[in-house]
Design goal:
2 copies of one chain form a homodimer. Chain A is an alpha+beta fold. Chain A has 3 domains: 121 residues, FAD/NAD(P)-binding domain (3-Layer(bba) Sandwich); 65 residues, FAD/NAD(P)-binding domain (3-Layer(bba) Sandwich); 123 residues, FAD/NAD(P)-binding domain (3-Layer(bba) Sandwich), CATH 3.50.50. Chain A is built from 9 helices and 19 strands. Chain A has a 5-stranded parallel beta sheet. A 5-stranded antiparallel beta sheet of chain A has the order 15-16-19-18-17, with helices on both faces. In chain A, strand 11 and strand 12 form a beta hairpin.
Chain lengths: 336, 336
């Protein structure tokens, strides 16, 4: 708790604090009115908004750009619509101008947005992202990257005999061949293992990342899943690719199956080489984990035609005859 | 209906007939006792057993080898156990010795297995596989493959100006580079499209198959999903690979998530080249569709190390930090 009612979300202690808070019905004899403002539209922000709305908080999510801004804006807009439909008041392109704290009890009263609006609230969640904790290395004179992280080589060595793993490191984006920040448990876990091997004489290498990520938002009557891998349209264009992209809406199962849910797939490819550059998914239940298939295609530096042609699984409860992401790839392939 | 109560499962008319049959409570004034014998342990057999048991039929499944024999025997045994637990009496390694037909009403009374057992029944389902319907081509003198199908080239042409697509064709297995029979809607659909292009002057090519397949069996309290891609251990050994394989049991979601279900993954690889050759999955809800990730790895001719290292998606409701199929690949990679 930074000040009364204003909470960051960074570690397990914060999570325990939150659980305690949302379970309480009163604070010092005063009933909690159960209004929350979540600041930040990334994975943590969306997941905290879900947690608050599921526990009956009237919830507002403020984000300086878009919800899940690591997606292209058209896909991000699909997420915003469903999160909004799930009961969260989503305010985009808005930062916090002020947090009003009660001078008597020191507790938050409201948040004022850069849009001039005042959002009365009982608690504020700050899900504003993370920065590499590299103070130790900076003090030791180790080189630090543009994004504030250590710059390990393939063996996770940041200097002769000095190893690093996890969120304090920048990682190599395999597609662009440059350092990026991708603080995720999957990379940290793989890197830790590699450090373990290498510090005792091994020669394991971390092969880089694709930028794969997944989340969901579930609220009464709403279930949206979100995933992405590879480059977004803007990232791909900035990297010099001749970007072609297309969003295709399909289904997760055959049309006559009760478990069918919609799945919007955006395919991003390079017109010159036909190489697949990125895939984004926004859909219902059972949609998002398909991103792994796209990740494997990116890992193998395969083309959009490969994705369209490959032998993926089909049975009515699991897919359409043209698997949704494959149909999306085929449609883009056809027009390239 | 071949004779009273004995039904094949080949087309939509058969399916309609079955729906009618299982909905009826009586036949000519006599209550149907609702006992079924399903002959065949493949996809159709297992799915029909599911349909029968869900509709209250006391169901016996007879199969000449194993349940889902396109899996390795250890994985097949996992399927048998769960199908049995789901209420189907599964009899393996047994063919039909006799079908006893009532001489008065012409209706089936029982099935006698090659094991000498008699299985009294009211209906018999024959899910015995399909054969290519190539009579027309045989009459025309077209070449026919070892498995009875047409042998199209990459353009789906079986002779000058003669095109074929679908279950009447053999297809090239990409890994072994030889014709196999893989009658599936996914291939038929892709081939039909290619024929359409090529008959009007196009030059589209069908790139072959991996042998990807998926199914599930759901009954009261039981939900098992099954998928495979690539070569099984025996196929791979016969193809000359130095086969190494391992089954790893993991989870579909983080341990603290209520939606977590078990997933057994068998990884099959070549020790000499470390190339991934095949993957098989038997698990609970949300397990089987992961086979597509493995299929993409096979399509790109990547290694078991690639599968272990690649950037797949993780969030607690969707996976463990080491995605289950990736953990399985890593464990095999470690011992190779």
């Amino acid at each position: 708790e930074l000040v009364g009612g204003v909470h960051p979300v960074k570690d397990l202690d914060h999570a325990r604090h939150w659980l305690d808070l949302v379970s309480r019905r009163a604070r010092g004899g005063i009933a909690i009115r159960r209004r929350a403002v979540v600041v930040g539209g990334g994975y943590i922000g969306v997941e905290m908004a879900e947690a608050m709305v599921q526990r009956g908080f009237s919830t507002t999510l403020l984000t300086r750009s878009a919800v899940m801004s690591s997606l292209d804006s058209d896909m991000s807009e699909r997420v915003r619509e469903t999160v909004q439909a799930g009961g969260v008041d989503v305010i985009t392109n808005t930062t916090i101008a002020d947090i009003d704290i009660d001078s008597v009890d020191g507790h938050v009263r409201s948040v004022t947005g850069s849009n001039g609006q005042v959002y009365p609230t009982d608690v504020v969640v700050l899900g504003l992202g993370v920065h590499p904790a590299t103070e130790l290395g900076v003090a030791a004179g180790l080189p630090i990257g543009e994004r504030g992280g250590y710059l390990p080589n393939e063996r996770q060595e940041v200097a002769e005999g000095v190893w690093a793993a996890g969120d304090c490191c920048e990682v190599i984006d395999r597609i662009r061949g440059k350092y990026v920040l991708a603080p995720l448990g999957t990379h940290a876990n793989k890197q830790g293992r590699i450090c373990g091997y290498n510090t005792v004489g091994g020669s394991h290498e971390f092969p880089g990342v694709l930028g794969t990520a997944i989340t969901r938002f579930v609220s009464a009557g709403t279930h949206v899943e979100v995933a992405r891998t590879g480059l977004g349209s803007r990232e791909a264009t900035e990297a010099g690719y001749d970007v072609e992209s297309l969003v295709t809406v399909g289904g997760t199962a055959s049309g006559y199956m009760p478990e069918r849910s919609p799945i919007a797939t955006k395919i991003i490819a390079d017109r010159r080489t036909r190489r697949l550059l990125g895939v984004q998914i926004v859909g219902g239940a059972q949609s998002a984990k398909r991103i792994d298939t796209a990740a494997a295609v990116l890992w193998g530096e395969m083309s959009v035609d490969d994705l369209a042609a490959m032998d993926l699984s089909y049975a009515p409860p699991f897919a359409t005859v043209w698997e949704a992401i494959q149909l999306a790839a085929r449609r883009l392939s056809d027009r390239m």
